[in-house]
Amino acid sequence: MPSGDVLVLIDESGRVIEWGRPAEDLFGWSAEEALGRRVATLLREAAAGGERRRILLDSVEVLVKPVLRGTSVVWQVHMAGDVMSGQDAAILKAVFTHSPVRLYVLDNQLRVMRMSTIAGERQDTSVRPLSGTHFTEACEFSDPEEETVVAQRVLESGAPVVNRLVRRDRTPDRPTRIYSVSHFRLEDSAGRGVGLVTSALDVTDRENARNRLALLDTVRTQVGHMLNVTHVCSELVDAVVPAFAGIADVEVIEDVVRGEDPPSAPVPPNALLRRAAFRGWIAGPPIGVKRSSPVGTPFSDILTDLRPCLVKIEEDDPWLAADPARADVIRRSGAHSLIVAPLALRGRVLGLVSFYRHQREDPFEEEDVTVASAMCAHTALCIDNARQFMREWITARTVQRRLLPHRPASHATAEIAQLHLPDPEGGGAWSDAIALPGARTALIVGDVAGKGIAAAITMGLLRTAIHTLADLDLQPDELLARLSDTTARLAAARAALPPDPVNREPLTARCIIAIYDPVDLTCTVARAGLPDPVAVFPDGTSAPLPVPPGPPLAESGSAPFPAITVSLPEGTTLAMGTGALADAVLATSGSVRLFLDSIGTRPLRDVCDDIAHMLTDHHRTDETLMLLARTKALPQDRVLTRDLPAGPQAAPIARAAARRQLEAWDVDEETAFTTELIVSELVGNAVRYGAPPLRLRLIFERMLTCEVSDTATSSPQVKHARTVDETGRGLFIIASLADQWGTHYRTRGKTVWAEQPTRAAGERTGDTAEPA
Fold this sequence. Notes:
By secondary structure, this protein is an alpha+beta fold. The strands form 6 sheets. Strands 12-11-10-15-14-13 form a 6-stranded antiparallel beta sheet, with helices on both faces. A 5-stranded antiparallel beta sheet has the order 6-5-9-8-7, sandwiched between helices. It has a 5-stranded antiparallel beta sheet with strand order 16-25-24-21-22, with helices on one face.
């Protein structure tokens, strides 16, 4: 207003006879409150700080002029020209009456002296009682003590606080609000703090929008890490409670949990829903419960039209009676607002999600429905990925279980136990204990890199190949060389397939083979990529067997697979495993190695169980497989060894020695006759084609094995003699009489052997009966 404009007219008695709008803005009294009252009374009220607003007397400068009006003298009160211009007054008026920001003028006791009105809000007597109250009472912030400390700090230091987010809690008649609060100090001409100007801008909508965007970002980053349907649902409820809802309940179509294809909408009324996740401030229904959704409820409607809906819950809603399980959750939680959203993808229904808000939370708004729909769309995609993975996982695990031995084979000369902790996604690890001629046992551990069906199938092919190669009675290094050739052919066949993510991955396989001889008490070992085996001796000491490292199977180049032969006393436990066990179990400093060293004579099955528990505590992540074998010596009375001369007399000497031993073993007459014939032909072949010294060995374990050794390296071959030929029928006769026969090559020379079942031993594929 222009300088000199009249604020107040005072008559001769000191009473107010005119009170302009500028005076209302400056002093805080309305015309109705000031007219007719004495100025002295108004000043006393202001100075005393009573129920009316106090005026900062030392911050207001006015000019009082006497004016003759008729025969009376009145006093005109003007604003001093150098204190406030007309433009300043106009600005103050606009700020205090048309600004969207609530302004509070506080005294140095933080009491409200003056308060603006929000644009569009009528200033009436309802705001007058706030004059003189503490500003935290006027604002009704959730934490008045903290806000008082902040305001007092500004008053004392003069450093303003800008855009501080402050919350006002929900009450039964109004929702939760969020304000951006700023404090600025008021100073007198001497720079002393005489009060504060506090602004409060309602930013609830802005902050809610930010919170919704942040929630969506949280769901997108936190949901879908695990390829398991139940885990994905748990990740969703963890992300949204309590940030979005007080309670979240996820139910998934039962077929989806099993990895099957989800149904199309509308879902049949009898379709089963499995509760996959529940989180809230009350205990919910058990996880895993299966039920159908009653018709006529918001939940059945969602499964029909796939349209998310916002439901205001009333006590007399008829659908509550139709769905007592959900009605119980609503009753116990005091829920008043519900959003039901479908878990759907490309018209296929995976399940639904229910979001509840209770009495301590604001009701859902329409904007929240959009957010819930977006969160469920992302979750549905993650669930579908997990469903497809689960189907592949079930297939891979089934393939792996069918390709692996159901139980370790029983061997009279070795106690066998296997520890197998499969990868959650399936893998390609396997182990075998294969009985070889001469009561020997081949111990095998292998591992195909990768996961899923491809790794399981490759493992099955390699396992089949090594069983076939084992029938050739090769040494471990030769077995690995031929297995590597087979692996290389599989890798080439994979590379020739049309490009896909699986075919682009190189085929990598590792293997270790140990052949234990219970007669000589030796073990020959070769390895391709897997860690050294560990031998735990009967005296409690242990040591890794220094097997020279060989390359992984099918690796380019021609690197050999060197083997070593070590002596293993009876009662030694041999431990072989995949690479996942190298640090924890097989390494000298491994955390489980001390336990392995102290197993003594405990049953190996119990040892595997204890190690499995320890490895679970170590949070393993890869497929783990270990084979334990405790050696036994073949009793001396089950072995006949006889050196033979190099001439024709060798055959009758061998037959006589065999006949006596077979009688001692109480072998039936038919088997004894066949064995004598086999011994005669084997010795005759060695005399004719071999090189001295010759040696006969009979081994009576599961099978009756006849072995004839010589130092020649030539390979015997079956001939088909003509009717008039006098020779050439030896190996043909052996092949006809024996269950199987073959040649075992040693460092010097070879051993030709033949096996046949006995009455006591039973069939080779039978159970573990001891010979009579």
